[in-house]
Write a structure and sequence with these properties.
The protein is 74% helix and 0% strand. It is built from seven helices and no strands. Helix 2 packs across helix 5, helix 3 packs across helix 7 and helix 5 packs antiparallel against helix 6. The radius of gyration is 17 Å and the shape is globular.
Length: 181
C-alpha cells in the first residue's frame, strides 16, 4: 500500500462515524470555499465604507487579485493539466470508501477546489499576511475534506495548492509590473 492510499483510507475512516463529523467533512469538502469567496466579497464591500477609506484601493486590488487568481487557477491551469493528465479518483479505485456526496469520476489531478482555495489564500496573504494565514488554514481544511470524502488523493491537493499559489503569484507579479507604468 502506498502513502496516498494510507492517507485516503485514514481520512475516510472519519466518514460515517457520526453526524457531526460527516457534516464537518462535507462542509469542508463542498461549502467552505463559498465562505472564502464571501470573505473576499467582504473586503470589497469594506472598501466602500467610510471607516476603511484608507484601505479602499488595497481592498479593491485584493478582491480582483483573489477573484482572477481563482479563475485562472481553477478554470485555466487546472483544466489544462487535466486534459493532458487524466487521473482516477480514490472512490473509483479503492474499495470500501464511504461517500458523503456524489461526484463524476476522472479528472482528479490537480484538485480544482484546492487550486481555487490556495489562489484566494495567496492573494489575501499578499495584502494581509496575518489574515492570509487563516485563509491558508481554510484551504488546507478544504483539501482534507476532499481527501476524506474519497474525491482526491493527497497529491491532487498538493498539485492544486501549487497551481493556486503560482496563479496568484503570477498575478501579483503582473499587477506590480503594470501598476507603476
Amino acid at each position: 500500500m502506498n502513502w496516498e492510499t494510507v492517507l485516503v483510507r485514514w481520512a475516510n475512516s472519519w466518514v460515517g462515524v457520526n453526524y457531526v463529523y460527516d457534516w464537518a467533512i462535507l462542509f469542508r469538502a463542498q461549502y467552505l470555499w463559498y465562505v472564502m469567496m464571501l470573505a473576499i466579497a467582504g473586503f470589497l464591500f469594506a472598501a466602500f465604507l467610510p471607516r476603511f477609506e484608507n484601505s479602499k484601493r488595497k481592498n479593491i486590488f485584493l478582491f480582483f487579485h483573489a477573484f482572477f487568481g481563482a479563475v485562472l487557477a481553477r478554470f485555466v491551469f487546472t483544466e489544462f493539466i487535466r486534459f493532458f493528465w487524466p487521473r482516477q479518483r480514490p472512490f473509483e479505485i479503492l474499495g470500501g470508501i464511504v461517500r458523503l456526496m456524489e461526484h463524476n469520476g476522472g479528472g482528479a489531478f490537480p484538485s480544482g477546489h484546492a487550486s481555487l482555495a490556495f489562489a484566494i489564500a495567496t492573494a489575501v496573504y499578499f495584502y494581509y499576511p496575518k489574515t492570509g494565514i487563516l485563509f491558508f488554514l481554510a484551504a488546507f481544511s478544504i483539501g482534507f475534506g476532499r481527501v476524506a470524502t474519497g474525491l482526491h488523493w493527497p497529491s491532487d491537493i498538493l498539485g492544486g495548492a501549487v497551481v493556486g499559489i503560482i496563479s496568484a503569484w503570477t498575478l501579483a507579479f503582473l499587477i506590480k509590473k503594470f501598476q507603476y507604468k
